[in-house]
Amino acid sequence: MISAILLAAGQSQRMKGQNKLLKHYKGKYLINHILNTLVKSKVNNIFLVLGFQNLKVRNIIIKSKKIQCIYNKKFKSGLSSSIQAGLNKISKKNMGFLIVHADMPLISKGIINTLCSVVKNKDKEIFVPVYKKKLGNPLAFKYSMIKSLKKIKGDRGAKKLIKSNKSKVQLVKMKSKSILIDFDQLKDFPSTT
C-alpha cells in the first residue's frame, strides 16, 4: 500500500490575504487539481492535512473514499508540523508514502504513479523527482524513513533529511518541469483563470 500526505495547511503568506487553495485555476479550485490527480492515481489513501481556513477548504474539496482530512492545529509553526500530522496516520501496512504539496496543480497522474512504482520496486529509501538536474516535488519515501521524518522541525520540510542521507536517495528523472512549479503568489495564477 502507498499513501499520500497532501500538505494544505499553509497560510498563503505571499498571496496578499487570500488562500491560494481557494483560488480558481482552469475552472476548479486550486486544491482540487492535485486531489483529482491523487484520487485517479495508484495511491491507496490520501491524508489531506488542513490548517489555515480549514473549514472553507474542507467544504470545497472533491469527495472520495480515498481522502481523509486531518486538522493540524499547529499549522502556524511551519511545514514540518503538517508533515508530522500526516505521518501520524501512516500505518505499518504502507510500503511507502508520498509527501505532496497542494499548490502544485500541474503534477500529473503519471508522475505520481512513477513515484509509487519506484517506492515498491527499488532498494533506496528516499525518491526525489528531478527535471534537468533540478530537484522537485512530490517526494516519496519507504516506510523505513518515517522515524527520521518525524524528527524534522520548523518550516524546512525534508530537504535537510535528504542532504544528510544521500546514500539512501534515488533521483527519479521526469520528463515534465511540473515537479518544479508551485503557485505561491498571485502572479503565478494566469489572469484568465
TrEMBL record:
Single Gene Ontology MF annotation? nucleotidyltransferase activity
- Domain named MobA-like NTP transferase is located at 4-165
The record's Pfam families line, in alphabetical order, gives: NTP_transf_3 (PF12804)
Name the chain's protein.
MobA-like NTP transferase domain-containing protein
Q: Where is the signal peptide?
A: none
* Listed SUPFAM superfamilies: Nucleotide-diphospho-sugar transferases
Matching PANTHER family, A to Z?
MOLYBDENUM COFACTOR CYTIDYLYLTRANSFERASE
> What is the organism of origin for this protein?
marine metagenome
